[in-house]
Automatic annotation (TrEMBL), chain B:
Cofactor(s) in the UniProt record: Mg(2+); Mn(2+)
Annotated catalysed reactions: a di-trans,poly-cis-dolichyl diphosphooligosaccharide + L-asparaginyl-[protein] = N(4)-(oligosaccharide-(1->4)-N-acetyl-beta-D-glucosaminyl-(1->4)-N-acetyl-beta-D-glucosaminyl)-L-asparaginyl-[protein] + a di-trans,poly-cis-dolichyl diphosphate + H(+)
Localization per record: Endoplasmic reticulum membrane
Leading EC class: transferase
Organism of origin: Daucus carota subsp. sativus (Carrot)
Keyword Ribosomal protein annotated: no
Subunit structure, interactors included: Component of the oligosaccharyltransferase (OST) complex.
EC numbers for this chain: 2.4.99.18
Identification of the protein by name: dolichyl-diphosphooligosaccharide--protein glycotransferase
Family named by the database record: Belongs to the STT3 family.
Membrane topology: Multi-pass membrane protein
Domain Oligosaccharyl transferase STT3 N-terminal: 19-422
Length: 371, 784
């Protein structure tokens, strides 16, 4: 079954290729954005917190105790702790580090917070799945390091863009080049792909990712209880035919809304995580609302056209079902003129927009003698 | 006017209307058929693309060997050396349909070839689909809407794209089956007739035979039944429409080998069983309500509800536990990605990577359903005024299908009929209001209507619009009849005769009119919109969707160029190679090779065995010697490569090559994608990596390529000069290259004298490699 559909993607190879490159382009833009943020923050907070704490104890036991102390099994790393870890060489463990920056948490396009929680999830799953196996447990440690308080480490790794995850192997010395960087592809599928990365690079078994359930057991119990209590009343009302569900207007507006939502390509925006608007490449102060080129659209653009698609039909319905019942002829006339005018404009606009966006141009097949 | 009519006149009028309706339907059928034969006129009567070639081959087998052999067919011409069980792994609907058509025609002494029948199956079934749409919409909103919807469906671009002549694929018959199943469901719902319910189950069976999309039906109909129950619209008619379908339909579906026990085991079908239980509970409740007094009923309800709830909870808990125990919760990946649009992009890259599974942007809607996108909301509103069982079904149909189409562009095909039905309803309602307004307000008499319908329509002129005039006439004629007919019925009940009621109805109608001038404008604009739709559809059929992709054309300043290289290559294969020779190529060309060249292939478009594909991918991405060894171990004698660098054909093997590397690397880890990329970029020029320059695909594609343009070696697809120009082949030799170089065939050289190469190997490893090369190129092949 699956494979039958396989066929097409090379057949129409050009299409995904185009979209991919566009997305890459978009990603590049985002990347440059990220870089910019970090550069700025680095410049403003030029501090060097070079404290000299030179302990020669094995960091392994310290890390273990830190891990069991933290509730997510991901260790909060600092410059000094990290320096102590590095002072041992070779080490008996690998260290997977998530580079975090609190001041960038408000940039939704970086998704730092969600990635961080996924990262912690992997750490926790690893910790819990290997409880009975201390050897395995001491092979890998998960650490989170924060930019604001540990800039020296950021500099040591040469991290200039986020999100950034590195795996420091037992023998790595030069932090700039040796530790393996986790590609964007490796955290695209969130915790699962991160776990795969760790399993393949550090030779450990992470095991199943234990996601905390959306609702806890207690809440679940309450909900079930609530539903059970409500059910008889609901059934009574259903039998009596007196619920919101029996109001056709709600169904109608729901149906029209789903239609509007779908034809506006909102699914595309959700799946591809398209922004509503993007800044103009030539003039950063301006915003681009409409993207030229087929195979991609921006959020605002989709909703605008979806609105145009829907409004025409609604006007038509207004004329045929509501307006005919109006007794005032002049009101009818006025509303009709407005509706027809708007509809005409809407259709015209969509055709023109499509023409502009995709180079759409049709022609009739008139007899050649007419030309 | 109505008053003047006697009963005889009325009968005559209805008879006339029916005859007119029949001829209009006939014309719609002709339109649906003829708009799809652009591909035959512009190109030739040929099967298109890839999958249709497989279907064609299966049909050939069926017509030659009969149905039992077809059922048990084990195909050894493909997936060598594994073979493939065809009978149990295909949806047989399409092949059986075309086979039956061919048999019937032959029995009537019309000696058409199987290929011709296959080419024209899709257009014929589009006509059927249009008629089915008529019946479906007629059940919902009357004849006028039905005719409008049928006319719209006959030329909706989305459907045309899958059903042009030559596009011999499952969807061609499946859309007809889909609409017809829905029609029978609604017909049963409206009549409560068990006869139609049985027909419905059989139509569903035909749909299951034809296309995997049948799961849409088996989820949509339960959803509708549930909706009816929840909104208090339960009726015995609903029971008759639903239960036989589930029981008979599931039994019949399980008869199709490719579905089999999936019909009861997978989650896609569970909804229907759940609703089956619910509808029985509800039916029981209604029955008890009927035989008990209201007071007793209340007592019974409290009793049953409390007991029933416990039982229900238990059953649901067991069901949930059962379903949850399977890793994907019993749903296939594609169904899940429909429910949760972001699912595929997160977890199943292979589904997400297919271009047909991409979510569409707004221009796709404009391209595929065109102005229908504007009309659908009006249709939705019309369906709610008033809401009936039938109209609630089409609303549900449009809402689900439009949502699904938003997730996957491929499902636009399922949306198209729904959009046509809705737009047909909207158009017919609008036309009836506007023409009524004109009719009752024109200073002339009742006959004046005929004239102004003509007037308003004749304003735009031209060939294509002429077509639309017919259409608009279609819309208003039967629709106008409807209200009068309805009024008549009412009046009959009132047993009022003569002029009184007719005046009443006239007044009623007079109240429900719009101003004259604006109505004329509105009518004009609607006709304009329809005309635009017709022009768009004809354009789409002629320009966008008719290319067969096996024969390519290009227009340039010096005229039309035809590239018929594929068939040239396949013909060469079938004439110049042994019947049992094995041909290796990337899987895209597997179906075509088996169907047209009749040679055994290693992999084909039914990509059921990933390892096998990965083996071929690995061979293509390996250096020559390793590739030779892989191919030799598979008994391959010829390698087929598609190359577009000379003429600029962009979907060639070099462009698909990264997929070969990825799929190959997925199974054989020594193939690593980064080895083929320079700094993450795929390039074939002098910056390409040595692995890339030495892999088999590169060599076979660009062998002797530099000779074509005087040593420059400029690739017209990648728009660069190639990185390696004097390619020498050691283990392969070129045997055939087509006229435009689009297909290149190579033969594996026979294994050379082993003793000699072994002794050499023992001497020194490094020298053997170079020696082999030299001796390989210098030697003539004993095969020639």
């Amino acid at each position: 079954m699956l494979f039958r559909y396989f066929i097409t993607f090379t057949v129409v190879y050009n299409l995904p290729c185009n979209t991919l490159s566009l997305i890459n382009l978009h990603n590049q833009q985002l990347n440059s954005l990220r870089l910019l943020y970090l550069m700025a923050t680095m410049a403003t907070t030029l501090t060097s917190s070079l404290s000299s704490t030179n302990s020669s104890t094995d960091p392994l036991s310290e890390l273990q105790s830190l891990r069991s102390a933290s509730d997510s099994a991901a260790i909060h790393l600092t410059d000094s702790l990290f320096r102590r870890i590095l002072s041992h060489h070779p080490r008996s463990f690998s260290l997977l580090i998530f580079f975090d920056a609190t001041q960038l948490h408000n940039k939704p396009e970086l998704q730092l917070q969600s990635l961080k929680s996924e990262f912690k999830l992997v750490a926790k799953s690893f910790f819990e799945n290997n409880q009975g196996n201390p050897d395995e447990l001491s092979k890998v440690f998960f650490g989170v390091i924060e930019f604001g308080e540990s800039q020296a480490t950021f500099a040591k790794f040469g991290v200039n863009s986020l999100p950034h995850i590195r795996l420091v192997g037992p023998t790595d010395k030069d932090m700039k080049s040796e530790p393996v960087k986790m590609d964007a592809g490796d955290f695209s599928r969130l915790a699962e792909s991160m776990a795969e990365f760790v399993e393949s690079r550090a030779n450990v078994v992470v095991g199943n990712i234990v996601r905390p359930p959306l609702v806890s057991k207690k809440q679940m119990g309450f909900i079930v209880l609530g539903v059970l209590i409500m059910l008889p009343f609901l059934i009574k009302r259903v039998i009596a035919g007196d619920t919101l569900l029996h109001d056709w207007k709600i169904w109608m507006s729901g149906a029209v809304f789903v239609y509007f939502f779908s034809v506006s390509g909102a699914m595309f925006n959700i799946i591809r995580k398209m922004p509503m608007v993007i800044p103009d490449r030539n003039d950063p102060n301006k915003l681009v609302f409409f993207y030229q080129g087929s195979g991609m659209q921006l959020g605002a653009e989709g909703f605008a056209v979806g609105f145009l698609y829907t409004i025409v039909g609604l006007f038509l319905a207004l004329m045929t079902h509501v307006l005919v019942r109006v007794r005032n002829v002049n009101a009818q006339r006025l509303v009709m003129i407005v509706a027809l005018f708007v509809s005409f404009l809407a259709v015209n606009r969509v055709v023109l927009l499509d023409n502009w966006k995709t180079g759409y141009g049709i022609h009739g097949y008139w007899p050649s003698s007419w030309n | 006017m109505v008053a003047a009519e006697t009963a005889k006149d009325k009968a005559l009028r209805y008879a006339f209307g029916n005859v007119l309706c029949f001829f209009i339907l006939l014309l719609i059928g002709v339109l649906a058929f003829s708009i799809r034969i652009f591909s035959v006129i512009k190109y030739e009567s040929v099967i298109h693309e890839f999958d249709p070639y497989f279907n064609y081959r299966v049909t050939q087998f069926l017509t030659k060997n009969g149905i039992y052999d077809f059922w048990n067919w084990f195909d050894d011409r493909t997936w060598y050396p594994l073979g493939r069980v065809i009978g149990g792994t295909v949806y047989p609907g399409l092949t059986l349909t075309a086979g039956t058509l061919w048999w019937t025609l032959n029995a009537l002494n019309i000696p058409l070839s199987v290929e011709t029948v296959c080419v024209f199956t899709a257009p014929i079934f589009s006509a059927f689909a249009a008629w089915a749409t008529y019946f479906l919409t007629k059940e919902v909103k009357g004849t006028g809407a039905g005719l409008a919807a049928a006319a719209l469906l006959a030329m909706v671009p989305s459907y045309i794209s899958r059903s042009v002549a030559g596009s011999y694929d499952n969807e061609a018959v499946a859309i007809f089956a889909l609409i017809f199943t829905f029609y029978l469901y609604i017909k049963t719902l409206n009549t409560g007739s068990l006869f139609y319910a049985t027909l419905n189950a059989i139509a569903y069976f035909y749909m299951v035979c034809s296309w995997g999309g049948y799961t849409f039906i088996i989820n949509l109909i339960p959803m509708h039944a549930l909706l009816c129950i929840v909104t208090g619209r339960y009726s015995p008619r609903l029971y008759i429409a639903y239960c036989p379908l589930v029981v008979l339909g599931t039994l019949l579906a399980a008869l199709v080998p490719v579905v089999g026990f999936n019909a009861v085991l997978t989650s896609e079908h569970f909804a229907s069983f759940l609703v089956f239980i619910i509808i029985h509970v509800v039916a029981l409740a209604y029955y008890i309500k009927g035989i008990l007094s209201p007071k007793m009923f209340k007592v019974a309800v409290t009793l049953v509800v409390s007991v029933g709830l416990v039982v229900c909870c238990g059953v649901i808990a067991i069901l949930v536990a059962l379903v949850a125990s399977s890793p994907t919760k019993g749903w296939s990946g594609r169904s899940l990605s429909l429910l949760d649009p972001t699912y595929a992009s997160k977890y199943i890259p292979i589904i997400a990577s297919v271009s047909e599974h991409q979510p569409p942007t707004w221009p796709s809607y404009f391209m595929d359903i065109n102005v229908l996108a504007f009309l659908v909301p009006a249709g939705i509103v019309a369906c709610f005024l008033p809401l009936s069982d039938a109209s609630s079904f089409v609303v549900l149909y449009i809402v689900t299908s439009v949502y699904f189409s938003g997730v996957m562009v491929r499902l636009m095909l399922v949306l198209a009929p729904a959009a046509c039905i809705m737009s047909g309803i909207a158009l017919s309602e609008a036309f009836s209001v506007f023409t009524r307004s004109i009719k009752f307000q024109l200073p002339g008499l009742s006959q004046s209507h005929q004239m102004d319908a003509g007037d308003s329509v004749s304003e735009p002129s031209g060939d294509v619009i002429q077509n639309d005039i017919v259409k608009t006439d279609r819309h208003d004629e039967p629709v106008k009849e409807r209200p009068t007919r309805r009024n008549k019925k009412k009046e009959k009940e009132n047993v009022d005769k003569a002029s009184k009621p007719s005046i009443k109805s006239k007044i009623e109608n007079r109240l429900l009119v719009l101003p004259l001038e604006t109505s004329i404008i509105a009518l004009f604009l609607l006709v304009l919109l329809g005309a635009f739709y017709v022009v768009h559809c004809v354009w789409a059929a002629a320009e966008a969707y008719s290319a067969p992709s096996i024969v390519l054309t290009s227009h340039s300043h010096d005229g039309l160029h035809v590239f018929d290289d594929f068939r040239e290559a396949y013909a060469w294969l079938s004439h110049n190679t042994d019947v049992d020779d094995k041909v290796a190529s990337w899987w895209d060309y597997g179906y075509q090779t088996t169907a047209m060249a009749n040679r055994t292939v290693i992999v084909d478009n039914n990509t059921w065995n990933n390892t096998h594909i990965a083996t071929v991918g690995t061979a293509m991405s390996s250096p020559e010697k390793a590739a030779w060894e892989i191919f030799h171990s598979l008994d391959v004698k010829y390698v087929l490569v598609v190359f577009g660098g000379v003429v600029g054909y962009s979907s060639d093997d070099i462009n698909k090559f990264l997929w070969m590397v990825r799929i190959g690397g997925g199974v054989f880890p020594h193939i690593k994608e980064p080895d083929y990329l320079r700094d993450g970029q795929y390039r074939i020029d002098s910056q390409a990596t040595p692995t890339m320059l030495n892999c088999l695909m590169y060599k076979l594609s660009y062998y002797r390529f530099a000779d074509t343009d005087g040593g420059k070696g400029f690739d017209r697809v990648r728009r660069t000069e190639i990185g390696k120009k004097n390619i020498k082949l050691t283990h392969f030799e070129e045997v055939f290259t087509t006229h435009h170089w689009m297909v290149r065939l190579y033969k594996l050289k026979p294994p050379r004298n082993r003793i000699r190469s072994k002794t050499k190997k023992s001497k020194s490893k490094s020298s053997t490699a170079t020696n082999l090369k030299r001796s390989g190129t210098g030697k003539k092949n004993p095969w020639h």
